């Protein structure tokens, strides 16, 4: 077992890695946050008006002040922040200078804007072949939709089939959970970057890494995309699941229970005896997977009548005793109070510059021997511009000239 002192002395996993992040909103910035969590120096470039997440959090009741801006915070913790006007040639040159000793260029900027600023892959690769160019896309870099604007609402949930697959047959689509697809795509990009980084340690060469929101959805729905070839189509009704005990049930207290009954024949006797106390169902047409698939909706109706007799905690106790996988359907409010989250540091308390203490989620990839990493607040707008540029030998005179031209803040 590693001591607490030993945890403190360990070198950070990505210590010495430098990331230049030229990204906005969520999908690529969350990649930068993860890399920063693991010790990389992540320098976030913003325009003078700032990343959009600094301003739009009010849609989810978030404050949007500089001293407490949760939407920006959750995607940008641990980074250094600088302001550069990339519309000016001098702005692009500042980025080139930052790339001299960097390892990764991270962006989700649309291709036309990158081409216009001279920050496209071809230009950067020719100048700096050591750079890993990580591009988070909407729909991929080929095909008729490659230049379409994209958010996870559109490229991931809508075109990617996620929203339609999650809706109940015959009802309206579910409300998309903002940033869900962004975070999955961002983690995929981190994985690609680390593979490229490993190769770079051997060859010295950087390369282009791309991940798209659309492809992330297709990959995530892979089971159902493949099943569609065999006539299994989404959406489905909760009353017509793959098997009648792989669905949700409403309990007497109006709370919902999810069952995951994947070893049907093995678990069915215990389910009858311990959970619902219906030994009469053993040996019936409902007792084997082979026979129950022919009467799924019928058996779901029977089970609905059983589960609605008692509150959810009654059923949880019995399912736990029977060893059958289940969970309550939790809301985000429930998650905030979930002891499993707090026991494992899935959630932590942070203190904003405002003095307010709030809850924040953590990186889902953990390294237990290293303990809980220190949480570093996201940067104020342009907070580190002078510090970062002086590190690459920009003189006071040069900085003053760039400020006068409004290239930097």
TrEMBL record:
Protein origin, superkingdom: Bacteria
Instruction: Name any one GO molecular function.
Output: transferase activity
Instruction: Output the SUPFAM superfamilies linked to this UniProt entry.
Output: CoA-transferase family III (CaiB/BaiF) (SSF89796)
Q: Name one Pfam family in it.
A: CoA_transf_3
User: Which InterPro entries does the annotation name?
Assistant: CoA-transferase_III, CoA-Trfase_fam_III, CoA-Trfase_III_dom3_sf, CoA-Trfase_III_dom_1_sf
The alphabetized UniProt keywords are: Transferase
Fetch the PANTHER family from UniProt. Answer: E-CINNAMOYL-COA:R-PHENYLLACTATE COA TRANSFERASE LARGE SUBUNIT, SUCCINYL-COA--D-CITRAMALATE COA-TRANSFERASE
State what protein this is by name: CoA-transferase family III protein
Lineage of the organism: Bacteria, Bacillati, Bacillota, Clostridia, Eubacteriales
């Amino acid at each position: 077992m590693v001591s607490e002192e030993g945890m403190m002395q360990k070198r950070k996993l990505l210590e010495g890695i430098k990331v230049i992040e030229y990204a906005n909103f969520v999908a690529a910035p969350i990649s930068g946050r993860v890399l920063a969590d693991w010790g990389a120096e992540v320098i976030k470039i913003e325009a003078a008006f700032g990343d959009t997440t600094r301003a739009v959090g009010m849609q989810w009741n978030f404050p949007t002040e500089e001293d407490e801006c949760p939407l920006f915070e959750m995607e940008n913790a641990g980074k250094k922040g600088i302001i550069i006007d990339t519309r000016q040639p001098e702005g692009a040159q500042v980025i080139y200078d930052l790339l001299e000793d960097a390892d990764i260029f991270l962006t989700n900027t649309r291709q036309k804007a990158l081409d216009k600023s001279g920050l496209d892959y071809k230009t950067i690769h020719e100048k700096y072949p050591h750079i890993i160019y990580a591009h988070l896309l909407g729909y991929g870099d080929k095909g008729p939709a490659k230049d379409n604007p994209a958010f996870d609402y559109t490229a991931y949930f809508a075109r990617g089939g996620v929203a339609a697959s999650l809706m109940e047959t015959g009802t309206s689509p579910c409300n998309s959970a903002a940033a869900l697809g962004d975070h999955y795509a961002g983690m995929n990009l981190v994985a690609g970057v680390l593979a490229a980084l490993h190769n770079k340690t051997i060859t010295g060469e950087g390369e282009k890494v791309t991940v798209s929101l659309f492809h992330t959805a297709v990959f995530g729905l892979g089971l159902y995309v493949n099943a569609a070839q065999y006539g299994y189509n989404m959406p489905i009704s909760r009353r017509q699941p793959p098997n009648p005990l792989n669905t949700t049930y409403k309990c007497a207290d109006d709370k919902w229970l999810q069952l995951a009954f994947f070893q049907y024949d093995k678990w069915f006797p215990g389910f009858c005896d311990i959970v619902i106390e219906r030994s009469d169902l053993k040996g019936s047409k409902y007792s084997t997977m082979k026979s129950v698939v022919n009467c799924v909706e019928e058996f779901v109706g029977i089970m609905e009548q059983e589960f609605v007799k008692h509150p959810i905690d009654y059923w949880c106790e019995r399912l736990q005793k029977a060893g059958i996988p289940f969970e309550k359907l939790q809301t985000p409010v429930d998650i905030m109070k979930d002891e499993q989250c707090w026991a494992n540091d899935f959630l932590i308390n942070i203190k904003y510059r405002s003095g307010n203490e709030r809850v924040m989620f953590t990186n889902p990839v953990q390294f237990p021997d290293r303990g809980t990493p220190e949480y570093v607040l996201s940067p104020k707008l342009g907070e580190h511009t002078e510090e970062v540029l002086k590190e690459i030998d920009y003189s006071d005179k040069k900085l003053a000239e760039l400020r006068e031209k409004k290239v930097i803040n």
